[in-house]
Design a protein that fits this description.
The structure is a single chain. By secondary structure, the chain is mainly α. The protein is built from four helices and no strands. It has helices at about 20-30, 30-45, 50-75, 85-110. Helix 1 (about 20-30) runs parallel beside helix 4, helix 2 (about 30-45) runs antiparallel to helix 3 (about 50-75) and helix 3 packs antiparallel against helix 4 (about 85-110). The relative contact order is 0.18. The mean pLDDT is about 80.
Length: about 110
């Protein structure tokens, strides 16, 4: 019985697939809602918790950014002949940021 040798190069992929440029841009921009959240917390802290309109505008911009990056990521992940890790990661990050901001809005509406 012959034993198969472990290949050292099994992490390499020799395909014609390429990274999607819009998918990579969407991944980078999917961090925008996180940056806006950090900015919103700092503005709220500096104004003693009385930055309601400012926080609302920042949150609205963050939700729009998350929706836009989610749309681009999903569109790029559906394309053929690309490496899907980058757009899928962007979509997951966008969904997480969207869920986080929606949680902030729901907590604000309820008044917890």
């Amino acid at each position: 019985m012959k034993k198969k040798k472990a290949r050292a190069d099994k992490n390499y992929k020799f395909t014609g697939k390429k990274h999607s440029r819009p998918g990579a841009v969407a991944l980078v921009f999917s961090f925008t809602p996180l940056v806006l959240f950090i900015y919103a917390v700092s503005v709220s802290y500096l104004q003693g918790g009385r930055a309601q309109e400012t926080i609302g505008c920042i949150g609205f911009a963050a939700v729009l950014a998350a929706l836009l990056t989610l749309r681009v990521s999903v569109r790029e992940a559906r394309k053929e002949n690309i490496i899907k890790k980058v757009p899928v990661t962007g979509a997951v990050m966008s969904v997480l940021m969207l869920a986080g901001w929606m949680t902030v809005y729901v907590i604000g509406w309820i008044g917890l």
